[in-house]
Amino acid sequence: MAKQRARTKMECYINVPLEAEYPLMTLFGDPMHHIAGVYPVKYWRKKLTHILAGLEKYVKYNLATDPEHERQIFQVIEQVRSSAKRRDYEVLVIAHLVELCVLLLGGHPHHLWQKNVSKPRDFKLSRHRTLHYARTAEQKATLIRDRWIVPRTKEEEEKGDYNGEGRKWQKLIEMHARRSTLHEFVETFRKAHPTDFLNLLC
Question: Which of 64, 71, 79, 107 has its C-alpha lying 20 to 30 A from 129's C-alpha?
């Protein structure tokens, strides 16, 4: 009886491992600092509600798709949030999150009662749409700045060099940003550093 009571008491708590803290902080900032620990399930549900609300915002502000696909996605997000309120929420939340991940890739497969799901065609989601990642000239320029210019500028400044290549490209990108000609900047960078361009953008 004592063991049963102890087991029941433990089921009222949830352990949030330390490994979960860093990814949650990168996604949602300081409110997730020191989230690792053992908490009452009721407290964790509140945190989970905050996390899922943030997930919905990420989808809302980054998704560009057709109305039907968008409706399906937010319908599943609502199912995830509703599942988090249930007593048996753990598996339900995971199931709907996997469903959401697959849906974001392009569509919702229908393998109900299918005995074997293992062939490549079973995992193709391109019946109605195909996922593509596209970059504007501004996004390409920002990527070049963040991954190529900034690291070089920092390295040069540590050596006391304030007129190095990184600083020159920084001035160039700022000039093109003011003129709204970042497409020209991207092309200039491509010609000057073709290998780095391919590594960054292709």
Answer: 79
